[in-house]
Write a structure and sequence with these properties.
2 copies of one chain form a homodimer. Chain A is an alpha+beta fold. In chain A, 25% of the residues lie in helices and 35% in strands.
Chain lengths: 266, 266
């Protein structure tokens, strides 16, 4: 009885808090998640891949809500393509932590648009932030579409600046270690292309385990160049230095993804 | 100012709610989940690995609530070890579907106990079921412990029979196809052992993709024999027939996991 009353009261308060947080957010883009047991690694912290997946899920949910999600775009034979990502982390999320991703779009050009995210915990403390850049393509011609022509999208643009520095361009990676990977069933999404976060999983698997246990990831920059299809044999290249640099190449040697990881000592 | 005060107040209430919710939950454990975008494969259906992870998560949550979860057991230097799993599927779960896992324990011997699960959708329709068998071990000696000595566990036993046939013993696999796999960062949990469902991921990656697109998985049996540690080089073996059989061996040729997949045409 007491539990039920408290539960109802809490629900109202949580809703009220969200209203305060998201007030004037325009499209009200706040999405709540929990760090599940399967999201954490040997240190008990959420993996980069898990957090990245939640960030992309929030992007998808928000686009859906505002009328320019994948299902809407597919009606006009278009789709979103993720081009670049930057993420920074203040304090890593731990197992069972509840957190919110607030997301908004703030820049749109002919070929590229910017979507931002801020991750906060239940106390409202910022735990991380992301800037993602997207292109819109015509699915038949595989060519870019002018994003500004999408009226729903144009209406969603907000003035609020990006929370962190935009994704950096990663020019060259000189491998000191490489490993081969065949794109498999568990890597692919409904398009039969490798899921964006799978690239990052392969990269993290190449790192010495002490990087995970003794350091803390501060910033990640990712450049997506091409898609990896089911069955393709890829090479994942790793160059170590102040930053850890990665490049994934397909069997013709064409770079399909580059990333850089910036660390701080724990 | 108002937001901060509300946050502090909320934190106290959330803690209080958790305390009330967990008190005397009894044995009737029902746990709700949603099929997230990252849980589905190229067909739009939840993967076996995703469903298996939810089933194991429900087992963990229910054990926690009843006083014999991993954290409780660790206090007396013990742990649960998953020994065998059987799962059957009536209708596969699709992206964004909400479902519940109801779980209960119904048999306990000296060395092994049985935990059951029934998966139902929002309409109450059964979508699948599982029977899992577990041992309890002493973490220092790595030897089995008499489960019946755990009084919380003994109190949780219910009469209700298992929903499907118990896990079958898989005796022999004659490989027609093998692939090597090095246990990596993304495979391991906090114990630095490969996560139980990762074994299944490697097996599914060995299947022809048409098995996924043209058939429907009806039943899975898994026998876990040994743990796979970080850095170990494993061989995954596949034997095809009316059932798809798998064996994973470590570098000494010792079997660490066997599984059989039973199919029906779509």
């Amino acid at each position: 009885m007491l539990a039920l009353a408290l539960h109802k009261f809490l629900r109202k308060l949580i809703y009220l808090r969200k209203q305060i947080e998201c007030r004037g957010m325009g499209m009200d883009g706040c999405y709540d998640y929990v760090v599940e047991p399967r999201d954490v690694d040997l240190t008990g912290r959420a993996t980069f891949v898990a957090v990245g997946n939640y960030v992309l899920q929030a992007a998808g949910e928000d686009a859906d809500r505002n009328g320019f999600g994948l299902r809407d775009l597919n009606c006009s034979n278009c789709s979103w393509v993720l081009s670049r990502v930057a993420m920074e982390f203040d304090h890593w999320l731990m197992q069972y932590e509840r957190f919110s991703v607030r997301t908004w779009v703030n820049e749109v050009g002919r070929l590229m648009t910017t979507r931002n995210m801020v991750l906060t915990d239940e106390m409202g403390v910022r735990r991380g932030a992301a800037v993602t850049q997207w292109a819109m393509i015509d699915l038949d011609r595989r060519t870019p579409v002018d994003i500004r022509a999408n009226l729903d999208y144009a209406a969603a643009i907000r003035e609020e600046p990006s929370p962190i520095e935009k994704p950096q361009r990663i020019l060259r990676v000189t491998p000191v270690r490489t490993v081969a990977h065949r794109v498999s069933y568990s890597d692919i999404d409904f398009n039969r292309h490798a899921n964006s976060m799978k690239y990052m999983e392969w990269m993290f698997d190449l790192l010495p385990l002490e990087y995970i246990t003794d350091r803390t990831l501060a910033r990640v920059d990712i450049n997506y160049h091409h898609e990896a299809r089911y069955g393709e044999l890829l090479t994942i290249c790793f160059e170590d230095g102040p930053q850890s640099l990665f490049e994934i190449k397909n069997s013709e040697g064409v770079p399909i993804c580059r990333a850089s990881l910036g660390w701080r000592e724990r």
